[in-house]
Every structure is written in C-alpha cells, then in structure tokens.
Amino acid sequence: MSGCGYEYRETAIADIGGAFGVNSVAFDRFEEILWSGNAAGHVSSHIGPNLGRYTSFQVHMEEEIRQILPIESVVLCLTRSGLRGQLRRGIPAFTFK
Prior knowledge:
Elements lengths: L21 E6 L5 E6 L3 E6 L4 E7 L8 E4 L4 E4 L4 E4 L5 E5 L1
Antiparallel strand pairs: 1-2, 2-3, 3-4, 5-6, 6-7, 7-8
C-alpha cells in the first residue's frame, strides 16, 4: 500500500450473467453485509472477506434499483415508481407505489 487511503481486498460478481451494471451499493449497519442493486431491478447481498453471495432477490421486473437503505427490520429498495421493503432473506414485506 503506497500511501493510498484504501487497499484492494476482493471482487464480487454483482449479478448473474453480468449483463447489467450496479446502480446502488449500501453497507449494512446491523450486519456485516454489502448490498448491491442493479439496472435489472435485482438486489444481492454479499458477506465475508471474499464477498460471497448471501441473498439475492428481484425487486422490480422493469426498473433499476436507485437506492438501497438497510434498516433494522427490512431492506428498503427504491425504484423509479416505488419503494419496496424486503426482509433480509428476500421475502417482500411491503410495497409503496
């Protein structure tokens, strides 16, 4: 590390097939999890030093994930037309349009 403020540790596959870019990333304050959302409306969580895939679920079939906010009880996922609350294991809790 030559004077940089960070150190490269690991890469992670953001989505299956690699066809869509990552739109949103959020660190979880309650668990050691990194959340990512992509342009296909899919959210994945990554855990551990190798950023292995932990959970993965579809939030919207046509809209990109614009922002992710993990709170204590659910993970909030914002798309263009709605807000979805998902349990951490991927089960939908609520949807606001």
